Amino acid sequence: MASHDFLPGAQRSARLRHSDQSAWIVKDEVSGGWALQIGGVEQSHVDLEDPTRIVHEYLRRMANVLDEVWPRGAPIRIAHLGGGALTLVRYVQATRPGSSQVVVEIERELPTLVTTALPLPEGTVLEIVIGDAREELAAMEDRRFDAIVLDVFSGEESPEHLATKDFYREAITHLKPDGLLLVNVGDDAGQRFLTAQVRELEDAAAEAGLSGVWTLTHASLLTTPADGNMVLMVGGALTSPEVEQWREAWVKAGPHPGAVLDPTQTAAAFGR
């Protein structure tokens, strides 16, 4: 059996007890690969044959960030708050073998479904922690990461206790001095939740003595109201003298047309 085949007889669905929704692994007939659907909505996409191929736009932008901030191929320590189908975990292992990764996922049944149906790349070093992202990160006490990825937000239905300055400040304390916090925020055309998150993250960064919030997004979302995702970033890594070179690389890497806003531009775009 080729490594990219769906495992014969593998579980394809599970009932998620925390959210009381059904999760399914289904073949993506349009893009190829496999999709994780929760409650009938596609949450993640995985290409087992090529884990460096990322279909979802916001996740591709996050991967581009990781590519530039740390030397190519160098292992990193990274925490993923929100697991999905472990798409970024697979990407990190494929591009930075030997990286130490931890996933915090509140849905106990989800990681088992994903890892049995869609095996991780050989050699993946992954710790899976079941529980609330804020509680479990706090329990890690003195552990520090190069990068923390928060991918649990979806507009006004997002967990309130994670959408606060205090939680962002707690997360920042788990970064190395040159680390990076990346936050995916999905919102509707009104962007009210997104705007609130920019402000909460700005305040947390200021308290931590960091520069403000960087934003990566599809350029059209800055001018035309529409549902979509934006990636917000803070961290010591962004004080590097190479940050403008990284910025050029992020724009060039796409998806196109992309926009990368520095803290001043982010503040202007979201009303501060």
Architecture blueprint of SSEs:
Elements: E1 13-16, E2 21-27, E3 34-38, E4 41-46, H1 57-69, E5 77-81, H2 87-95, E6 100-105, H3 109-117, E7 125-130, H4 133-139, E8 145-154, H5 165-172, E9 175-187, H6 192-207, E10 214-218, E11 228-234, H7 243-253, E12 258-261, H8 263-269
Parallel strand pairs: 5-6, 5-8, 6-7, 8-9
Antiparallel strand pairs: 1-2, 2-3, 3-4, 9-11, 10-11, 10-12
Helix pairs in contact: 1-7, 5-6
How would you portray this structure in words?
With 272 residues, this protein is an alpha/beta fold. It has one domain: Vaccinia Virus protein VP39 (Rossmann fold). It has eight helices and twelve strands. An eight-stranded mixed beta sheet has the order 7-6-5-8-9-11-10-12, sandwiched between helices. A four-stranded antiparallel beta sheet has the order 1-2-3-4, covered by helices on one side. α3 links the parallel β6 and β7. It is globular, with a radius of gyration of 18 Å. The N and C termini lie far apart (55 Å).
Q: Can you tag this structure with a few keywords?
A:
272 residues; alpha/beta; eight-stranded mixed beta sheet; four-stranded antiparallel beta sheet; 12 strands
Class by helix and strand content? alpha/beta
Low-confidence spans: none
CATH superfamily grouping: Vaccinia Virus protein VP39
Strand order of the largest sheet: 7-6-5-8-9-11-10-12
